[in-house]
Structure formats: structure tokens, C-alpha cells
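Methods: example folding runs. The two proteins below were folded one after another, and each record is reproduced exactly as written to the output file, sequence line first and C-alpha cell line second.
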Amino acid sequence: MREREPGNQYKVLFKAAAERLRDAKLMRTFLDRIVKWMECRALMGPICVNVEERIRAAGDKPWVDEGGISGVILLSTSHVALHTWPLGEKAVLDAYSCRPYDFDILRDALRLHYDPHTMTIYDLSNALEWDACNTGVTNEALDGEGT
């Protein structure tokens, strides 16, 4: 029998209006709210960065695909990260927590805050099986650990 750790990880790809995807305040509100809805505890953040502004402030010129907002909130049980690309009206949400939660929370929160045109939710929770470590492409023992 496989050892299954508790928790869930979902990756959500969605498309939404560029104005919403450029809004750091909206992202901050979204990240704060989603953590409460997941019944998790935030340790740090949310940290939301306007990528293009940060690159220009560092004296560099952004590449074409370096627009949007990147945000993360660190949880006592893992993380929630959101990256937006307003130019293509695209975004990716990654939400992992050792504390189980329902993916409906993600869907409902995205609908409320971003009103997406399309949304696809991928359940990566099965990748959290420790026995799966023995079936990967590489399975190297590090410092004498592993098989």
C-alpha cells in the first residue's frame, strides 16, 4: 500500500482581463482571502511584486514576457503562489498545503476576484505519495539517504 501524505496541491491555469491581472492590490486581497478560506495560517506575505517595475527599478529592461504581478504567501503548511501575464491575459495559481482543502475554494475565489474567461484546474495531489519517490526518472541517494 502506498504511503499518502495528507494535503492537496492544485495548479490552476486561467485567462482573465488584463486590467485585473495587473492589479497588485487585487492579488494581495485574493491571497489573504484564499488562505482564510483554506483554513490555513499565513507565516509571511502576501508578497506581491510588479515584475516590470521591479526590473526597471534595478536599471534593466524587461523582456517581452516579464510583465504582470508575481505573488506568494507562505503558509505554516506550504504556499500559495500566483503569477500573471497580462499581455496574454494568462495566469497560473499554485496552491499546496499539507492541510487538506477542497479545490472549490480555489475556483470560487478566482471567480470572485478575477472573473476568469477560462479556467483549468489540475490536481497534483497524487504526486505527494512518498513511495512515488522510488519510481521517478532519477532516484539518487543523497548523503546516504534514500534507496
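Second run, written to the same file directly after the first:
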Amino acid sequence: MSKFDDDPEGAGDSSSRDHEGFRHTRTSAAWVAVVVAVIFGIALIDFIAQNTRHVRIEFFWASGYIPVAVALLGAALAGAVVVLAIGVGRVAQLRLNIRRQRRGPKPSSHVGPNEDDRDASSVDDEN
């Protein structure tokens, strides 16, 4: 193993190789991401070039003429921002729940008036 390997942990065993024997590294994953980004960029340029016709857009008090591609990309970007905001909120909620579970339940100083009654009635229902 050379000092330039991507795998300093020594995880280059058979578990990190696929069925054909190729080793997956962070560098190979980065190249795949670059290729995907280039293909996406070419498709985006083609989309913009083919949709240059102007359309009238009215949004509340603002109105004007913009290319179809700009309108569609703006709508897609707005949708992505909404999805991102919901996703960030959900991840924050899950992390908060995990943090609360690790701390354990808060000690309660008093028991509610009906909590003891529910325990007794559930025992009676089982019999």
C-alpha cells in the first residue's frame, strides 16, 4: 500500500471491491460525480438554447417577459428550495429527538391525577 492510496484505514480488502474486482475509492466516486455533472451541464445548456422564446410572466404585482427556459429553471429552483427547507427541518427534528433520547427522560416532580387511575384500570381490563 503506497502513501498515495485513498484508503488509509486499510479497508482495501475484498469488501471494498465489486464483483469484478475493481476497488472503489473516493477518487473514483469524484470522477463519477464530475462525469454526471458534465452531462447535466450539457443537457442544461441544450435546454436553454432550445427554449429562448419569451413568455409573459405575472407574479403578484410584478410582470414581464422572460425566456421560457429562465421561467422553468426559476420554478424548478423555487421548488428545490422548498424541498430543501422541508428536508432541513425534518433532519433538525430527528437530531433533536435523538439528543433528547440520549439525555434520558426529564424527572417529573408530580404525577398527574389520572395517571395512576389509568394504570389500575388497564390491570382490571386484562383480568
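Comment on the second run: Strands lie at 54-59, 62-67.
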